[in-house]
Structures are given as C-alpha cells and as structure tokens.
Design a protein that fits this description.
Layout: E1 3-7, H1 11-23, E2 27-31, H2 34-44, E3 48-51, H3 60-68, E4 78-82, H4 87-95, E5 100-103, H5 108-124
Parallel strand pairs: 1-2, 1-3, 3-4, 4-5
Helix pairs in contact: 2-3
C-alpha cells in the first residue's frame, strides 16, 4: 500500500485530505507542521509527501530542502499544496525541487492525478 505523508497546519484540511486518500486506498501519515513532518519522514519513509508551504516551526521550502539532504529521502516525490496560487508562487515551488504544485482548494481528481504522475516518475528514476 502506498504511504503518503501529509504535512499541513490546518487541521481540517489535514483530516479531510487524509480521509479522501484513505478512501482511495492510500495509507496516510499526518503532521501538523514542517518540523513534525520531517521527523515522521525520517522515521517512517513515506512513498510520497504532500506539504503545505506556510506553516509554523518550519515552512514547506525548508522541509523540501531538508528532505533533499537525506540519501534515503531525497528520491521521495514531493508535492506542494498551498493557497498561494500566483504563477510566481507555483514557479518558486517547482524551481525549489518539488515534483508538483497544487493550489487549495483542489479537486480530488487533480490530487489523485498528481500523486499517480509523481509515483510513476519515481518508478522510472
């Protein structure tokens, strides 16, 4: 079963996204901030990471940077999902090394397509 780490400081978004993904057959791990998300990634090594940008304690850019510093984690697909929807925000997210960038609110179909695309890309690497 594919294990997805969700990192977001908004409890409602975190719970709703986890529930939707679990209904689609994914195993989810939730973290309420970047620091906690990084700790869980190191301990549980997920198959893919979905991360908000703006969070307390550690933002999404820092999470992505730290993930990239670990040999066991740097190949994990990383998707930003954020309310920041300007083209410059999306470009910054992708230029920082994220595999994809979704804007909130997002449709389940778009999220599932992004996850599948990133997992397929991981298998090809």
């Amino acid at each position: 079963m594919t294990r997805i780490l969700l990192i977001d400081d908004n409890a409602t978004i975190l719970e709703n996204t986890a529930e939707l993904l679990e209904l689609e057959g994914y195993e989810t791990i939730s973290a309420s901030n970047g620091r906690e998300g990084l700790e869980k990634a190191l301990r549980l090594v997920p198959d893919i990471i979905l991360c908000d940008l703006l969070m307390p304690e550690m933002d999404g850019f820092t999470v992505l940077k730290r993930i990239g510093e670990h040999p066991d984690l740097k190949r994990i697909p990383f998707i930003f999902f954020s309310a920041k929807s300007e083209k410059i925000d999306i470009k910054m997210g992708l230029d920082s090394g994220a595999d994809d960038y979704l804007t909130k609110p997002f449709e389940l179909e778009g999220l599932l397509k992004s996850i599948e695309k990133c997992l397929l890309k991981k298998m090809i690497r």
